[in-house]
Amino acid sequence: MRRALPRRLLAATLLAASVLAPLPTVPARAVPAPSSPASAVGPHDGAGCPADGFGPALTARLDKTVEDVREQARVPGLVVGLWMPGKGCYVRATGVADKTTGRPMFADTYLRIGSETKTFTVTALLRLVDEGEVGLDDPIDEYVRGVPNGKKITLRHLAGMRSGLFPYTADPDFIHDLLSAPKRPFNPWEVLSYGYRHPNVFAPGATFQYSNTNLVLLGLVIEKVTGKRLADVIHERVVRPAGLRHTFLPEGAGFPEPHARGYTDQTLTGAVADATDWNPSWAWAAGGMISDLQDLRRWAPVLATGKLLSAETQAQRLKVLPTGFPGTDYGLGILRTNGWIGHNGSLPGYETVTVYLPSQKATLVLLLNTDSLVDGQEPSTLVARAVTSVVTPDNVYAGGITPRDKS
Question: Number of structural domains, the chain?
């Protein structure tokens, strides 16, 4: 198996669905109405941003930078949104949304956001903390039985990627089963079973290891405490209060129009495949959500400033610790990378970045329709570094926290 497989499957934002329980479904009211494909800057995604929103010189420099890095990273289609109050804005879509037809990429595409889902799941959990329904230092064993070392692993350990639980996406049988039938459904208990076959990697709190196992368990905690499906809780307690209209956790492989097609080399043969209709149910609370440019633009400052949380809980969230990735630390379902706060997302076919820079109140959103590595690097990281090198040279995006294969 290719080196890239464990790396992104271990790092991407995907969870599980199994035959033992129904898949989480999106509430009917949370399913966006279909909209028509748009031109490079769609009717709502430009959000009033003019073509030369940073002035002719800087806009031209950004245009060249974006196109150069898209070609360097071999990204079929790319959407870049950048907003800096008092300085300007920049919204561009470049490349193709469909390699077969040559349909141009468009700014108002829906996209699978991978691990950015973690920011929504953990925010839902933290709202329960604020309401006194759960405590960050509660052991997972109080809510979900059968977790290895569950009496000592806390909700804080899970949200901060410090539980020591084996990442189910690193299990060879899981990788084989997923890539042999990528349209099959999984459920949380099923994917957890792949991880439970292995001993824990380290003692709770000892170090950082990115693991989707952690978020599957937090999704189950949220459902246990609320008595509702995770999709409903995220919609009611996070998406709707944040004013988002095109963001939801879908049922199975559901994918509203318009959306770009996604391309991956995470296949059993290593050949590039169209992963648009692959079922992301295995990503669930860790990476199954869908959103668009404008919703992610709204979400970035809400997440980074803690608009939906108490000041105390947001402070707990932003207590970041080292990840081992230079320039990037991790809090509770949130990363800090050279001043930018937010998260990246990656799963077969798609990558995203949504980050906020408090010092300049700047928001950066990237949408890509590939997750194929370039010289061992995430294409979204290459794009984010290139753009921030131009507009915020003192705060260049260092990178996400997608694990690399260590074999």
Answer: 1
Task: Round to the nearest angstrom and report the end-to-end CA distance of the chain.
Answer: 11
Question: Is residue 138 assigned to a domain?
Answer: yes
Is the confidence at residue 394, as pLDDT, over 60?
Answer: yes
pLDDT tens-digit map of 276-330: 999 999 999 999 999 999 999 999 999 999 999 999 999 999 999 999 989 999 9
Q: Which of 18, 115, 291, 346 is catalytic?
A: 115
pTM for this entry: 0.89
In the residue annotation, 115 being an active-site residue is answered as yes
- Tell me, what's the pLDDT at 22? 28
Residue 32 lies in a domain: yes
Tracing tokens 């979400």 back to the chain, one arrives at 299
Cα-trace Rg, the chain: 19
Residue 401 within any structural domain of the chain? no
Beta-carbon contacts of 152 under 8 Å, excluding residues fewer than 6 positions away, are 139, 203, 204
Q: Does some domain include residue 20?
A: yes
The Cα 329–Cα 335 span in angstroms is 6
The domain spanning residue 195 has which CATH number? Answer: 3.40.710.10
For residue 114, give its domain range: 4-391
Cα–Cα nearest to 354, from 362, 52, 43: 362
User: Computed from CA positions of residues 202, 206, 208, 211, in that sequence, does the dihedral angle turn out positive or negative?
Assistant: positive
pLDDT at 308: 98
Q: Are strands 350-357 and 362-368 parallel, antiparallel or unpaired?
A: antiparallel
